[in-house]
Amino acid sequence: MLDTTRRPDRHRHRVNPFELSDEDFRYKYRFSKRFGEKIVGILREDLVHDPRGCPLSPEIQVVCALRNWARHEIQDDTADLHGVSQPVVSRTCKKVAEILSRKSREFIKMPTTLNEQQETIRKFRSIANFPTVIGAIDCTHIRVKKVNADGGQLYINRKGFSSINVQVVCDADLKIMDIVTRWRGSVHDSRIFRECRLKQRFEAGAFSGILLGDSGYPCTPYLFTPLLNPTTPQEERYNRSHIRTRNTVERCFGLWKQRFRCLLRGMFGDIETAKKTIVACAVLHNMAIDMREDVFSGERDSIEQYSSEPIVQRYIAPSIRGNIRRRQFIETHFQDNTHL
Asked: What's 177's DSSP letter?
């Protein structure tokens, strides 16, 4: 006999998460209610829900994505918490990531005016007295699921897992000013920079400062790297100051991944959605810094538990022009002992 008993509707009762106390909201979503409301305000017009089928308010859509990316729990748990199905959570996260990535130029941008550039340089100089720095550059590998399509082996990095090699330039406040997510894990950091638009802008003289990078990049007139074998007190002072100042990008990665555990533990959707989610998390990271969001400390697992050792890049010899420019820079700025 056919069973015509209707199942209870798991989707009927949904609590508005913004009716939670500040403490409960932060525990569930790892961010303050004020931060969640800010995101909803920015995305509301793009998230107007369709009342047919399984309607989700902009508030529910935002918190589903925020919880999934920040806590990186399985989507079934996020679905159960909000009275929806796992496929709905998956589609919601994809939609929110697409919208945030489209808006990324509003939140991820290099300083363009002279005043903005001078303020960025001033903040970098306050770290270790390294002058004229406008950004710190590096790459980080974000794990993705194994790609079985043609060319999938090109996503496998030197550590042996599939990843996207993400290039980031940050400022002294750890905000992301430029991001490139289109490269597979086997691609060297130096190639990503060589073929990115930011390099063209530096060569065209768009910026009054320089970038600091590690030895995985060639030293150029606008990207300074450490000296491989410093031999004079001036060169040693340069290296010490360089290391401390460039460390901002390592701290940026640490903070970014602590806020969004999906960046630590890996992306399990398709590659294009993973790229958009990475950019979306960069947008939210910058917003969190602007809003002075504290890092949630409710989870006890540490970043080190999930992060691996950095992938060692082969040393790239400096260009002749870069070597000359760096030598002149050291002679001009590192003669005295004010660089600690």
From this structure: E
**Tens-place pLDDT, residues 82-129:** 888 888 889 999 999 999 999 999 999 999 999 999 999 999 999 999
Which amino acid, 231? Answer: T
**CB of 218 closer than 8 Å to CB of 202:** no
Strands 163-170 and 176-184: antiparallel
What is d(CA 145, CA 155) in angstroms, rounded to the nearest whole number? 10
* Tokens describing residue 103: 């808006």
29: left (phi over 0), alpha (psi -120 to 50) or beta: alpha
- Alpha helices by DSSP H, the chain: 22-29, 33-43, 58-71, 75-82, 86-102, 114-128, 189-194, 197-203, 233-259, 261-265, 271-290, 303-306, 320-333
Asked if residue 279 lies in contact with residue 179, where contact means CB atoms within 8 angstroms, the answer is yes
Burial degree of 292 (CB within 10 A; 0-12, 13-18, 19+): exposed
Q: State pLDDT tens for residues 123-150.
A: 999 999 999 999 999 999 999 998 887 7
> How far separated are the first and last CA of the chain, in Å rounded?
83
Task: Please report, as a single letter, which amino acid is at residue 152.
Answer: G
Query: What distances in angstroms separate CA 75 from CA 65, 246, 256, 282, one per listed residue?
Result: 10, 37, 21, 21
Tokens of 146: 């194994």
How far is it, in rounded angstroms, from Cα 106 to Cα 101? 10
Token pair recorded at residue 298? 């409710």
CA-nearest of 169, 167, 121, 333 to 241 is 333
Tell me if 139 sits within 8 A of 165, measured CB to CB.
Answer: yes
Please, is 185 exposed, middle or buried when counting C-beta atoms within 10 Å of its C-beta (0-12, 13-18, 19+)?
Answer: buried
Nearest Cα residue to 327 out of 211, 205, 192, 231: 231
CA distances from 74 to 30, 124, 191, 272 (A): 16, 39, 35, 20
This prediction has a pTM of: 0.89
Q: Which helix (H) or strand (E) holds 103?
A: none
DSSP code for 268 = -
